[in-house]
Amino acid sequence: MSTETTASVSTHILDTSIGRPAEGVAITLSARSGFDAEWAVLGGSATDADGRCKDLPALPEGTTHVRLDFETEAYFSKKQAEAQQDAPRVRDSGAFFPEVAITFAVKPGEHYHVPLLLNPFGYSVYRGS
């Protein structure tokens, strides 16, 4: 929830390699108040079965920049292990990007939904609605 003095953030992840939400990806939310300010870790959560993270911490008043850190290596390691149960190992498809850090600017009173489209060898993000 945002107020006139704070911004708010939400995210979700779609694993484009399987066309499904990415469940169980740990996410850490950090914020700072100014380009040269130190980052403050506000907390984190993990994606649910729909790939959504509905309980990220609120941003403090004065936040100007936000960083979302997605821990992708553990997610892809688990997916690879599940896929290997019934099939021989064909290739090492561990995460090329073991983590994804997305940093963006925010303005008070606005909501920022930042979806992550993810696969083992690439990703893209955008400001959603």
From TrEMBL:
The superkingdom of the source organism is Bacteria
What positions does the domain Transthyretin/hydroxyisourate hydrolase occupy? 9-128
Q: Name one GO biological process term.
A: purine nucleobase metabolic process
**One GO molecular-function annotation for this sequence?**
hydroxyisourate hydrolase activity
Q: Does the keyword Transmembrane helix apply?
A: no
Q: What is its EC number?
A: 3.5.2.17
- Catalytic EC class: hydrolase
Cite a single Pfam family from the UniProt record: Transthyretin
User: Which catalysed reactions does the entry list for this protein?
Assistant: 5-hydroxyisourate + H2O = 5-hydroxy-2-oxo-4-ureido-2,5-dihydro-1H-imidazole-5-carboxylate + H(+)
Gene3D superfamilies per UniProt: Transthyretin/hydroxyisourate hydrolase domain
Q: Give UniProt keywords alphabetically.
A: Hydrolase, Purine metabolism
Q: How does it assemble?
A: Homotetramer.
Q: Provide the family line.
A: Belongs to the transthyretin family. 5-hydroxyisourate hydrolase subfamily.
Q: Relate the protein's function as given in its record.
A: Catalyzes the hydrolysis of 5-hydroxyisourate (HIU) to 2-oxo-4-hydroxy-4-carboxy-5-ureidoimidazoline (OHCU).
Which PANTHER family does the annotation name?
A: 5-HYDROXYISOURATE HYDROLASE, URICASE AND TRANSTHYRETIN-RELATED
Q: Name the chain's protein.
A: 5-hydroxyisourate hydrolase
What species does this protein belong to?
Answer: Streptomyces purpureus
